Predict the structure.
Amino acid sequence: MADHKISELTNYTPPIDTDLLPVVDVTSGDNKKLTIGNLASYLAGKAQTLLNKTLTSPILTTPVINVGSDAAADIYYRSAGNAFTRLPIGSSYQVLKVVSGLPAWSGGDVSAKIRLSADSAALSDGVITKLNLNTEDYDTASAYNTSTYKFVAPVAGRYAISISAYFYTDIVDGKVYDVYIYKNGASVARGRLHSGSTQPMIVDKYTEEHLAANDEIEFYVMQASGGGTVKIYASSEVTFATVALMHAD
């Protein structure tokens, strides 16, 4: 084979696995041959990973990152121990906050104010009756149902809950008038007034309750006047209920 400078040789692309390369055995000094396929296998065995490696000004094009059970919209951050860590996507209405220096999901704006569109029907004496609040002033998470008259918690957390009701028509002096806040079908808070005259009265109640996701809140009233003509007046100033998420779990 005639001697040639490498720069004088004809370009040969692409090589195939059986093509030969000359090599020098540094142990014996002999000239030997090596196939492209054998060289590729050797280099594959020497491949380096990025584990514990430092990249200087790298450009990554459409990289795929996997930190276990990855899902769309997950967030990745450096943990307190400097590990690359995944924060799974939160649920609806949650917002990102910082807890002990690290990102975490928290409940967002979940709140509703509801009221009557018209005066209630006359309340039966001594009967706890659901207050059919059928009009929303606002409902940021669409959590209140104006057909079932229930607030259904979209996320778990501590909620502030209030009810105010204006009792009128044939109020009897010295009788009892109540408002109730129900959680999952049972009373958790009651407001009560004993009438001191025959004038209409406002009865209200405020409480804070921990709700799991899908827990239900309802509002009830009761009058014990001895008669059956007392009603609840439909005014957004005096008859309404509110529910607001204070802190998400």
Q: What stands out?
A: The CA atoms of residues 97 and 104 lie 5 Å apart.
